[in-house]
Every structure is written in structure tokens, then in C-alpha cells.
Automatic annotation (TrEMBL):
Keyword Cytoplasm applies: no
Source species: Enterovibrio gelatinilyticus
Highest taxon of source: Bacteria
The keyword Signal is annotated on this UniProt entry: no
Segments traversing the membrane: 9-29, 215-242
Keyword vocabulary terms for this entry: Membrane, Transmembrane, Transmembrane helix
Residue intervals of the EAL domain: 243-491
Protein name per its UniProtKB record: EAL domain-containing protein
Amino acid sequence: MKPNKQDVVYYLVLLCVPLFFCVASGLYLSKLSVDHHAKDFGQFYLQILGRKADVLSAQVGVALSQPEKCEEIDSRMAMWRYIDDYATVKDGDILCQSNPLIDWGSSKFSAKTLEPGLHHYLKKSSDSTADIVLMIVTEKTSSGQGFAVLTEQAFHEYLDLVPSSRYSKLTIWIGDTAIVGRRHADQVIANSVESGDHNISIGALASDTYVNTTMAMFVLSSIPVALMISLMAHFLICYFAPRLSLADDIKRGLDRKEFYLQYQPIYGNDNKLHGFEALARWQHPKMGNVSPEIFIPEIENQQLSMLFTRYVFERVVQDIGPLNLTKPYHLGVNVPPSFMCSDELDTTLKSTLEAFQRVNLLLTLEVTERQLLDEEAIRHIYAVRQLGIRVAIDDFGVGHTSLSMLQRVHFDYLKIDKCFVDTVGVDSINAPVLESIIELAHRLNVNIVAEGVEKIEQSSFLSARGCQFQQGYLHDRPLSIETISSRFVFG
């Protein structure tokens, strides 16, 4: 069967909307994951840098611990290949220096405000260019204060940073000056972390390979989630949508003639066919066969009983048209009490009786007991019985019919609901009720029809207690009008 346009749109929306949001969420989460791991990576490197800065400061502090002993400082500094220049200063006077060309006294190195630790400095060369160098400042003592200079290259060698395949861009700041990875400092500053003990900050940016791998992992993981959401949404729609739009579906179903009738035979105690009951069935185009337990209560709740009853009578007249009965049978049609008071009662019954008489059928109105019979309905019951129409109380025992109503209105049949028939042979609280109903019907001189007879034990029990008629799967299932034509009505 070729899918219609609405179905295609429905399934596309059902698949694409969750997929879009799940993929978008996956991309967003992948970015959060990459940024989070970048900061973790920076924090890890920051701890390494902090430890190396502590070691370097301690080494310089030891080497310059005696600011006035220049020869000892020279011999110590020769051991540290990372140190490019050094000087010791006291009260603005140079005590020792490795490079006499540098004016240490006039430089900011000897400023009293310079705190111990790592600092950056622009060292001017003879060609008027300036190189960024690092300054390690020792604690100021009564003997003086020491300064040691590292070139940027020497600092890189000392750090001995291990390259990472995940993070191709790494920037290290001393203060506000980038020492490592100056070219991409603006790109990684958002993910930078700062040391609380040192004047160092570090930021990292994930490599394109790592970003693409992480995005692919999150996106691929989001696809099964999107499919699960689509599947759950489909199940929820299938479960709730029929209930939300059932009344509209019923109206459309009546217009499209999706409802049809089956006829369940009713047999007497002599196992001879007595008649049939017309039972409505619904073949929904999407939901398939819908149970009467679902659509009948909805019809009653949504005030569609009159519309549906009119449809049933029209369908009954249509179905029985080709029949050729050799003997009269009863055909029961369920009607709500409101039908007995409607303006359509006379015209509907008149056209129906004409069709029934042509095929030798006797009409029985089975008034459903789920709604209360009022005084007007009772008057109309008397009137229709004068037309030769039989009247039955359907599903007796589960609705509103009272004992006083049975005494006031003469019914031709009392149909016992299946829930009481099921108590036969079962230790149930409803078991005594069945016998009481049968006894009551006998006293009122009303014929009994037992519904839902499915076991031989039930049939024997009912026959023994004078139940005149039975219907149920034990005798026959509901049949199509074609089956009835071939089995019962041609002689």
C-alpha cells in the first residue's frame, strides 16, 4: 500500500525533530567537554610549571644567597646553563654582575617594588630590537637582592614541555605577557587558568583532530538517543492520540462507513435459532479493529448516541435487503433510552419496519441499561410495543433499571449480562445474584436471554433454571450478513 503524504510528513517530523535536537545537544556537549578537558589539561600543566618555577627560584636563591661574593656566584652560575645573565644589588648599587653592558642599577630590576618570583622583561639589543626575557628575583635581605635572567629559549628548554596530540596550541603567560605560544594567545585565553602561588597563567586549545573526534563521538552517541525518543514519541502518540481524537474519528468513521454490523445468533433451549442481535464493529484505517468497549462508551460520553443509532438502523436495513427468510426471526437492535424520546423515533421505526416486513423479520429494540429511563421514554415504550415491536432490557443488572421500573413497564425480554453468567460454577459474590435475576424474571413473566454463554456447564445451568434463550460463543460467534444468508435464511 502506497503511503499517503500525511504519513510521510508525520514520520519525517517524528525522526528529524528529535534527531536535530539530539545532534545539536551532542555538538554543544562536545564543546563543553573539549573546553572542560582543556582547562583540566591547563591545570595539570600549571601544576608542573609551578613545581619547576619553585625549583628554579630555589636554585637561583641558593646561587645568589651571598650577593657580595662575586667569584662564588660566577662558579655557581656556570653550573646552570639556563641562566643567561645575573646581578646582585644592594641599595641601588651593583655588587656583582655577569654582563657589565647592562645597566642594572637604572633598570626596573633593582626597583624596591619588584616582588620575589618570576617576571618578564624586554631586553633591548644593539640593533634596537627587544627580546622578551624572564627575570627571577630573590628575596631581599640585608646583604642585598639577586636577579637572574633567562632567555625565552632557555625557559622553553628548562620547561621541557611534552607535546600533546590533543592540544596543539598552548600559551603560557608571565603576568600579562605571553612567553610561550604568543601567536595563538588570543584564541586560548578563554580557557586559561591562573596559578594562585605564581605569576603564571596557562591556556590550551584542542587540536582539530581531537575536536573532530569528540564531536563525532557525541553526535554518533546522540543518534540512538534520537531514535529512542522518536520511538517513544510514536508509542505515546499512538496511545494517547486515539483517545484525544476518538470522537472525531467516530464521526469520520460514520461518514466513511467504517462501521459495520455482525449478527450473533440467539438460540432457544431446544437449540433452534430464535433470532439475532446486531452488533456494531469498527474497522479503523490505522488502528485496525477497535473494540466496542472503547468506542461505545465514547459515543455515549460525547453525545453521539443518536447519530450512531441512526447509522445502525440504516446499516441494518441495507444488510437485510437481499435476505429471503423462510420463517420469521427476531432481530435485536441496541438503542439508548434517549432514542425512545427523540423526534426521529417514528420515522426511523416506520422505515425499518417496512424493510423488516419485506424479509419476514421481527424487530426487537434492546434498550441499553447504562442510561436511566425517564417517564417520557416509558410512554414511548408502550407506544412502540403497540406497533408489534418487541422491547428488551439489555445488560440487565449492571445499569440503572430498578425493580419498580420492571413492575411499571412490561418488557418482552430481559437480557442477563455476561458478568453474571460467568459466575456459574465459580465461587463468586455475584453467584446468588444470577439465580435471583432468573427468579425475578419468572415472577414478572418476562422471557430471559442469557448473554456471553461460553461453556456447556453454563448452558446446562441456565436451561435447568428455565432461561428460555441463550447467546454466546458456545452456540455461535457474531456472523457477517453473508454467512447468515448462506446458513439460515434460504429454504
